[in-house]
């Protein structure tokens, strides 16, 4: 039986999501812009999903824009905000541990459009110091971006503290949060986060790939990247993918009632894993033990390169990752930023839990890790 522990990369779609996708593909397949009955039904499906995402973020459904995924959301938010608010203010402050879908558009703005970028480095525990962020923001700053939960280490960032200070002192500065790894795990109330834009993704929360959403606070002007028929209130032209959006909404509705219970269960499983890893002298845990999402645990198997151990585990039908799925094996900039030595970074393994992960699966993982180390160390 396969043990899937790569849920920060993607999750197994839940039955309500799959059912909603199927229904919209074979029954409610109209174009939501059409005026006839099938179009109206399709539009109702979008409205229902929009209300579900809004309920999870505690906001007005009209603040929700659907896209093809978090990468499109982050690109649109960052480039669109910079173009609207960065005509005179040319400074961006961002954490140094962002997902590539944030880091790359900011790098583009720096290199191609003349923006000054200040990247705030984390401490060894993976957390950004709010004071460092706050001190870097000034009257010339147009955009501040900080993720909620780091996708490689699980470190929870002090987003609310950073953003509340920024909005109090520089109300025109746009605050952007990639909340992909926090959504449906941590409680998020848009108003209390002081974020102008919040980005979430479907396939990280048991929906299907190819759909994301962003909350845009009322009154905030983001220049759209896609232009055409004016769908999604002009923010994202192109016929909406009703099946994927409906599946996203269905997944969120199924998760909401038990978020706290699921989080508590994840905490117990994480503690169990960390206790077992602490008994192995060749394991170094890279994730912080405090103020960290229980769903993500990063550790290094000293002396064994990540991809070698990853494929050994895979041969036993245990699936983990060596870091961000988007890096495809490239050296982790996140682990470098938090001061993990190159040799440890090159042997890092990321385990990410789901709501279905069991203690028995953790036992199997640790047993196979031990077998793998003993086998692979001999071949060196």
Characterize this entry briefly.
This protein has 380 residues and is α/β, with parallel strands linked by helices. Helices cover 41% and strands 14% of the residues.
How is this structure best described in words?
The chain is α/β, with parallel strands linked by helices and 380 residues long. The protein has a domain at 3-11 and 258-378: Aspartate Aminotransferase, domain 1, CATH 3.90.1150. 41% of the residues lie in helices and 14% in strands. The protein contains 13 helices and 12 strands. Strands 2-8-7-6-5-3-4 form a 7-stranded mixed beta sheet, with helices on both faces. A 3-stranded antiparallel beta sheet has the order 9-10-12. Strands 1-11 form a two-stranded parallel ribbon. Helix 4 links the parallel strand 3 and strand 4. Helix 2 packs parallel to helix 8 (242-255), helix 3 runs parallel beside helix 4 (100-112) and helix 10 crosses helix 13 (359-378). The two termini are 30 Å apart.
What topology emerges from the helices and strands here?
Layout: E1 3-4, H1 15-26, H2 37-57, E2 64-67, H3 70-85, E3 91-95, H4 100-112, E4 116-120, H5 130-136, E5 141-145, H6 159-169, E6 174-178, H7 190-193, E7 197-201, E8 212-216, H8 242-255, H9 259-277, E9 283-285, E10 296-301, H10 306-315, E11 318-319, H11 333-337, H12 342-345, E12 348-352, H13 359-378
Parallel strand pairs: 1-11, 3-4, 3-5, 5-6, 6-7
Antiparallel strand pairs: 2-8, 7-8, 9-10, 10-12
């Amino acid at each position: 039986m396969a043990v899937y522990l790569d849920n920060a990369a993607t999750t197994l779609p839940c039955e309500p999501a799959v059912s909603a996708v199927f229904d919209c593909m074979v029954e409610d397949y109209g174009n939501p812009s059409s005026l006839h009955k099938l179009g109206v039904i399709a539009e109702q499906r979008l409205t229902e999903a929009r209300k579900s995402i809004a309920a999870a973020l505690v906001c007005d459904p009209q603040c929700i824009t659907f896209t093809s995924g978090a990468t499109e959301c982050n690109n649109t938010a960052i480039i669109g905000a910079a173009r609207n608010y960065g005509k005179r203010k040319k400074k961006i402050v961002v954490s140094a541990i962002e997902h590539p879908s944030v880091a790359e558009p900011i790098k583009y703005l720096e290199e191609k459009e003349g923006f000054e970028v200040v990247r705030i480095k984390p401490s060894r525990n993976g957390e950004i110091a709010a004071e460092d962020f706050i001190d870097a923001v000034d009257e010339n700053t147009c955009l501040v971006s900080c993720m909620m939960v780091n996708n490689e280490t699980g470190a929870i960032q002090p987003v609310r503290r950073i953003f509340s200070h920024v909005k109090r002192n520089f109300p025109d500065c746009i605050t952007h949060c990639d909340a992909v790894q926090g959504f449906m795990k941590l409680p998020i109330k848009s108003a209390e986060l002081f974020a102008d834009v919040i980005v979430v993704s479907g396939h990280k929360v048991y929906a299907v790939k190819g759909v994301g959403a962003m909350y845009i606070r009322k009154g905030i002007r983001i220049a759209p990247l896609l232009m055409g028929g004016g769908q999604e209130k002009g923010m994202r032209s192109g016929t909406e993918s009703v099946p994927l959006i409906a599946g996203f909404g269905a997944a969120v509705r199924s998760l909401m009632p038990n978020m706290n219970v699921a989080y508590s269960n994840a905490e117990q499983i994480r503690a169990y894993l960390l206790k077992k890893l602490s008994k192995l002298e060749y394991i170094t845990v890279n994730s912080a033990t405090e103020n960290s999402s229980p769903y993500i645990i990063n550790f290094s198997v000293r002396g064994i390169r990540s991809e070698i151990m990853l494929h050994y585990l895979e041969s036993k039908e245990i699936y983990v990752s060596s870091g961000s799925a988007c890096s495809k094996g490239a050296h982790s900039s996140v682990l470098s930023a938090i001061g993990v030595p190159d040799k440890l970074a090159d042997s890092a393994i990321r385990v990410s839990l789901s709501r279905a992960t069991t203690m028995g699966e953790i036992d199997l993982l640790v047993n196979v890790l031990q077998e793998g180390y003993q086998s692979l160390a001999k071949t060196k």
